[in-house]
Design a protein that fits this description.
There is one protein chain. The chain is α+β, with helices and mostly antiparallel strands. The protein has a single domain, classed as Alpha-Beta Complex (Sufe protein. Chain: A), CATH 3.90.1010.10. The chain contains 5 helices and 3 strands. A 3-stranded antiparallel β-sheet has the order 1-2-3. Helix 3 packs parallel to helix 5. The model has no long low-confidence stretch (mean pLDDT 93).
Length: 153
C-alpha cells in the first residue's frame, strides 16, 4: 500500500501552491460547484465556450492539497480543450483512482502525480472535484448554447 508521504510529495506541494486561473469569470457560459461532504472541500469553476472549445476558465478552490493539485493541472491545460477531451480526462482520472487504470498522458500527464491516491478511497472525492465541476459547467454551457440556438429558430 502507498504511504501517505508518497501522496503528499514535493510535486503535489508545487502544484497546489501554484493554482492556475484562480479567479472567477464574470461572463461565464457555464458555472458549477462540486463539494465533498467527506472532507468539506469545494471547487467552483466558470468557463466560456466557443463551439465546444473552452476559451476562458476561472476557478476558486477551497480544497485539500490533492484537490488543489488537480485544479492546478486543470487550470494550466483546460483553455483550448474541447468538451469531449475534458470528459475523457475526467473518466481516465476516475478509472485511475477507482479501477487501477493508467494515468493520463500527453499534456495531462502531470495528473499522474495523483496516482498514489488510488489506495486512499477517502481522498478520491476531493481529488476528483475539479473534474466533476468542469463536467457540470460544460453541461450548463452546452444547454445554454442549445437554448440560444432554439430561440433563434
Amino acid at each position: 500500500m502507498t504511504q501517505l508521504s508518497e501522496i503528499y510529495n514535493t510535486r503535489i506541494l508545487e502544484l497546489s501552491a501554484n493554482i492556475a486561473r484562480a479567479q472567477r469569470l464574470e461572463d461565464a457560459d457555464g458555472t458549477a460547484t462540486a463539494h465533498s461532504k467527506l472532507c468539506g472541500s469545494t471547487v467552483t469553476v466558470d468557463l466560456k465556450l466557443d463551439g465546444d472549445r473552452v476559451t476562458a476558465f476561472g476557478q476558486t478552490v477551497k480544497a485539500c492539497l490533492l484537490g488543489q493539485a488537480a485544479a492546478s493541472v486543470m487550470g494550466r491545460n483546460i483553455v483550448g480543450s474541447c468538451a469531449l477531451e475534458l470528459r475523457e480526462i475526467g473518466g481516465i482520472m476516475r478509472r485511475m483512482l477507482k479501477e487501477h487504470g493508467p494515468p493520463p498522458a500527453g499534456r495531462w500527464a502531470d495528473l499522474a502525480v495523483l496516482e498514489p491516491v488510488r489506495d486512499y478511497k477517502a481522498r478520491h472525492a476531493s481529488t476528483l472535484l475539479v473534474f466533476d465541476a468542469v463536467e457540470a459547467a460544460l453541461a450548463k454551457a452546452e444547454a445554454r448554447q442549445t437554448a440560444s440556438l432554439g430561440a433563434g429558430a
